[in-house]
Amino acid sequence: MFAAEQYETFQNEVRDFVLAHCPAGTRRIVAESGKLTRTRLAEWQRILYERGWGAPSWPKAYGGTGWDVWQRHIFDEVLAECDCPPQYHHGLRHIGPVLIEYGTPEQQQRFLPGILRGEDWWCQGYSEPGSGSDLASLKTAAQREGDVYRVSGQKIWTSHAHEADLMYTLVRTASTGRKQEGITMLLIPMDAPGLSVRPIRTIDGWHHVNEVFLDDVRVPVANRVGEQDRGWEYGKFLLSRERLGSANVAPLFQLLERTKRLVASRLEGPAEARRREHLALRLLMAEAEIVGQRELGVRAIEDVVQARPLGLAPSALKMASSRLMQQVSEIAFEVLGPTLAGRFGAKEGEVEDMNWLQSYLFFRARTIVGGTNEVQKNVIAKALFGD
């Protein structure tokens, strides 16, 4: 652990570097709430990798920084404050740590360098039709034949599958016992014969989720993570790595400040005074909640540092963060909505306005992805009141 002044020095070091090296075009897209492509995110990953910051949460032995939890939190906050994008999470924060913990040396040598350098893009094959929140009910089946598994089934809501090179996925290899048993984790190339991707068009107008169909896809046993039928353990480990993601409220503060500026600039003059003041009050109330969220996040990080149980904090943080993103974006939509609602395709000078509309629609999913609010409430209720 650093002393307080060392963390401040580290924060300044990160800020100076990202302001100097994060491409201006990328920062502009983030500042305008636009959608970043794989090309831009991969470029940013390469820049961080060359600086030695390619994997903030990985051990040094595997090419990571070896930073403590406070350094990782500071790094994420500074990126958001400077309108720099977060690093693409599927490789760095999801499958990478699983491979470090459970992968074979051959798998680590094969897959980790591509993640670090931003060369290999991953997606997550978890959800299926009818198996979203109840993931253990998944039905995609894998039958082992010698040195390969033959996989057939369907995955859905697969983010970035159309851009990915590989998919880490959970499949069923046995149907006896508890439904959490008999699940295996496989690593599947997206260009494997029999695998196809179909886009799902969402109301925000952006293409980011897909259906993935697997029709007798042959996957080498060498691409299995850990032991057969123990994939549920590895899947839970993967999800646990994101427990404190919502402790970083810098993106919320950035959204809040951009919305404040939008209200002030678009609702000028005496004629708009009542409306402007009403929205300003709503923003003030949201800001008070974000400050409270920040304090809860700081406490949760300190619990991790002190090896204390996190308890309900991750669920509470996730629910609050999702709701606040929606509330603040609703205010922006109330300013711009009457002229933009129902229309995609910006006219000249309207790119930022259209990004606001698409962000508002995109944030509708925040209370679903990463564990629905209903699931989070059940987790909290169970912890408070028991089964």
Automatic annotation (TrEMBL):
Keywords per UniProt: FAD, Flavoprotein, Oxidoreductase
Molecular functions (GO terms): flavin adenine dinucleotide binding; oxidoreductase activity, acting on the CH-CH group of donors
Pfam entry (one): Acyl-CoA_dh_M
GO cellular component terms attached to this protein's record: plasma membrane
Superkingdom of the organism of origin: Bacteria
Domain Acyl-CoA dehydrogenase/oxidase C-terminal: 229-384
InterPro entries: Acyl-CoA_Oxase/DH_mid-dom, Acyl-CoA_Oxase/DH_mid-dom_sf, AcylCo_DH-like_C, AcylCo_DH/oxidase_C, AcylCoA_DH/ox_N, AcylCoA_DH/ox_N_sf, AcylCoA_DH/oxidase_NM_dom_sf, Mycobact_Acyl-CoA_DH
Domain Acyl-CoA dehydrogenase/oxidase N-terminal: residue ranges: 5-119
Domain Acyl-CoA oxidase/dehydrogenase middle: 123-217
Cofactor: FAD
Family the entry assigns: Belongs to the acyl-CoA dehydrogenase family.
Listed name of the protein: Acyl-CoA dehydrogenase
Organism: Verticiella sediminum
